[in-house]
Design goal:
The structure is a single chain. The protein is of the alpha+beta class. The chain has 14 helices and 8 strands. A 4-stranded antiparallel β-sheet has the order 5-6-7-8, with no helix packed on it. β7 and β8 form a beta hairpin. α3 packs parallel to α5 and α6 packs antiparallel against α7.
């Protein structure tokens, strides 16, 4: 019976749940995760469709990303204490929701949920996990590779637990000395993941390499593209995109168009050009039908993405069709 309950992960409870002895188990409005399903199975409570509420995707994104962010904060705290990654908690508390979110083709709704509140350090890991999973699907990774990528992406910044808070949350640019210290999160993360039972060396390499760049201008070792793993290249694209579209203590988020333009321009040199192109193409395709505001203040609807220039689509305003390319 356990598997039938598992189909309700990501759904919201419509009523308070009690076991057959009348003991209160879970409150109404709980967004069900793997831990809740285990609890229900222990109490021999088996759900049916009447027990849950289907919520719209935007509400689901916000609840799921908030829950994952809270879980990520607790995982970080555990690692600080034990110096070990609680991989089972990650697999049950976080990964199912990242998979659920990445199944829904509503990029705009997803983006609003990924916007950092005052928890960028934790939310960023969830965002990069979701964006990398989407990108892995678009690159047609097989399910096993995709599962490994999701965990690697969600843990990519895990080394930051050893970086002092006054550097992580500094409300301005880092000094040269502080930046050198910040760079250590890559090697710390590598060692933490490498020493965790149940992880893979490729996942450890993502923590090490996600700031390396194709032209050798990255860190910690300044290696060039042919020495960077494909997983690391995928996570680098997701990492850059979320960092640029998020409000940070020392700068505001850049508009989506500006971010995509900069990413397209840096695809030759910094980021893998093929992976970057797939990300921009698919992201833009998912936005067909959405409203956009042009630089002159007019509002139109995206109706077609042009293969030769995906970030300048065909837009419909009233009777007019405007080719932004």
């Amino acid at each position: 019976m356990e598997n039938s309950n598992r189909t309700y992960i990501g759904k919201q409870l419509g009523l308070d749940l009690f076991n057959d002895k009348g003991v209160f188990v879970l409150p109404a409005m709980t967004l069900l995760n793997a831990e809740h399903i285990r609890l229900l199975d222990q109490h021999r409570i088996f759900l049916d469709p009447h027990d849950v509420i289907e919520i719209d995707s935007v509400a689901f994104f916000h609840i799921a990303v908030d829950d994952c962010t809270t879980a990520m904060e607790m995982i970080f705290d555990q690692i600080r204490f034990s110096k070990k990654v609680p991989i089972n908690e990650l697999r049950s508390e976080v990964i199912p929701f990242i998979n659920k979110v990445s199944e829904k083709n509503d990029f705009y709704g997803m983006l609003s949920a990924l916007q950092s509140k005052d928890d960028y350090t934790y939310r960023h890991n969830i965002a990069v996990g979701i964006l990398s999973t989407l990108l892995g699907k678009w690159l047609k990774l097989d399910p096993e590779e995709l599962g490994m990528l999701t965990i690697a992406a969600t843990l990519h910044d895990i080394g930051k637990i050893m970086i002092p808070a006054d550097i992580l949350t500094k409300p301005g640019p880092l000094s040269a000395e502080e930046f050198e210290y910040m760079k250590k999160h890559t090697t710390i993360g590598y060692e933490l993941i490498r020493d965790t039972v149940g992880t893979d060396h490729m996942q450890a390499l993502v923590a090490l390499q996600h700031h390396e760049r194709m032209d050798g201008s990255g860190y910690p070792f300044g290696v060039q593209g042919h020495r960077i793993t494909d997983y690391s290249k995928i996570v680098a694209v997701a990492d850059v995109f979320h960092a640029m579209t998020s409000d940070r203590l020392y700068r505001k988020a850049s508009p989506l168009y500006e971010v995509l333009k900069q990413m397209a321009e840096s695809a030759f040199g910094k980021l893998d050009p093929y992976i970057c192109r797939v990300f921009i193409d698919k992201l833009m395709q998912s936005m067909i039908g959405n409203e956009v505001e042009l630089t002159d203040g007019r509002v139109g609807k995206i109706i077609m993405i042009l293969a030769h220039d995906p970030i300048r689509p065909l837009v419909n305003i009233g009777e007019d069709f405007i080719d932004l390319s």
